[in-house]
Amino acid sequence: MFTRTTHRRPRATVRPARRAAVLATAFVALLAPALTACGGDASSATGDGALKWASSYFPAHWDPVVSGSGAQFRELALVYASLTRTDESGKAVPDLAESWEYNDTGDRITFHLRSGLTFSDGEPVDAAAVKAAIERAKKQQNSALFGDLTSIESVEADGLDAVLHLSQVDHQIPQLLGQRVLQIASPKAAAAPEKLDQNPVGAGPFVVKQLIPGTKAVLEKNPDYWDAENIHIEDVELVSAPDASTVVSGLRTGVYNFADLDPSQADAAEKAGLDVFVQPGFNASNISLNINKAPFDDDRVVDAVRHAVNREEFVDKLTFGHGEATDQPFPKGYEAYDPESENAYPYDPAKSKKLLAEAGHAPGDIKLDLVIPSEDPQAEIVQSQLAAVGITVTIKIDKNWATPFFAKDLALSLYSTTGRDSAVQTLTAHFGPDGPLNLSSPYEPDGFEEAVAKVRQTPLDAPEYKTALREATRAGLESKALVFTYSSPNLMVKSSAVSDLPKNPAHIDWTGVTVSGH
Predict the structure, then answer these.
(1) What CA–CA distance (Å, rounded) separates 457 from 469?
(2) Whole-angstrom Cα distance, residue 148 to residue 438?
(3) Does residue 205 have a cis peptide bond before it, meaning omega lies within 30 degrees of 0?
(4) DSSP designation for 5
(5) Distance (Å, rounded) from C-alpha 61 to C-alpha 59?
(6) Strand 51-55 to 235-240 pairing
(7) What is the tens place of the pLDDT at every residue in 67-110?
(8) Could you write out the DSSP letters of every residue in 472-501?
(9) Which of 147, 217, 246, 351 is an S-S bond match for 238, by CB 3.0 to 4.6 Å?
(10) How far apart are CA 496 and CA 501, in angstroms?
């Protein structure tokens, strides 16, 4: 599923921001002796040449079915490989599958797996493992991925050939089944999902040797990984970052050599001589409205909210100038971004007040609860901007926020996402009648279903694909359920010891990356 974020960056699970208490606990745990280990000894990967990664979204779950496609997938990709992966252009390229092809009608796709591969427990990587992974993702009770796999009706396993029978023509499948949605675990290990959750077994570039839940993971290079010759890092130490300022000092002193970075710390990191860079991504934050509940059952009130939003304030206050304003779920320049829909509802508080008056609401008449799971500076900006046009917002924190949000019981909330490698999946998640990010389900804008079906039916390399995709984006943006605000960058920082990373959108790919000694 998609992931809640804050002004820092995409998080691993559904939540907005302040993690101070959690991080403080994690920092204390980091100083404690190793409490548990999953295989191997408890030695630390702190020698020269080791990747020492401080993360603000350390995985809460190591079962990829439970973790879903939130920001955690970047770290789980150390352990797990997928059928496909994404290259620097954002296209699907071979991973565990060396090739694939559709049938003539586009409702069946066959993935041909590489021969001779095994999971780190010795089990074979074959079509049966792919079948098991897809079926588990569709059926496991706590799966975060079942909604992504609705086009897959059944899977037929024939040696190294996994044949996916589809419920509709869908040329998005190779894009979809990459790291974000189908990281494949050993079926033997996945037979006990609770154990897999803290003892991951995959066929990725690294193998976990030690795991302290929520705090630290020590990994070593997997010599049996299909592309092991291009993985030059021998050891990885992944830790939960204690706080933003500590990360910078830790990088400066060599405790870490790689981290995701809070925008507020970018200047300090650059002044310390560290390499601060943006990894391409699909992040987008929004204000979620439920048009099935008053006052948003009146289109004039929805439009009033749209015109009350000053997106630049989000950028300035939350990203320190490193993000950008957005009114779409895609970044400018991406093939799914629709230039014709840009700035359809510009910031205009006077127009907002006029629309509220036309709807019969005097200033102060509308009183709303903005429900979020924890403190979030986004909420304070929304509260202030809506107050300026006469809408009173009370921020309410509910730690169990996810339950009413996904049950569509809230009238007003916030959400942020890391997007999808499949643009269609991004669109349907936001605007579709069953979309997890559509707070107004089962509502969908007119023409959206037909526009999405047209994109699915169009091969990705067809000349008309981009036009069809942008038309689907345009149809989705007619939705009254979401008001997009800003995009926070995937801001990273590393020491000079770590070479440049491939610019794969939203992914962190260690192929070809080296870490020199000190």
Answers:
(1) 11
(2) 14
(3) no
(4) B
(5) 5
(6) parallel
(7) 866 789 999 999 999 999 999 888 999 999 999 999 999 999 99
(8) HHHHHTT-SSEEE-EE--EEEEE-TTBPPP
(9) 217
(10) 12
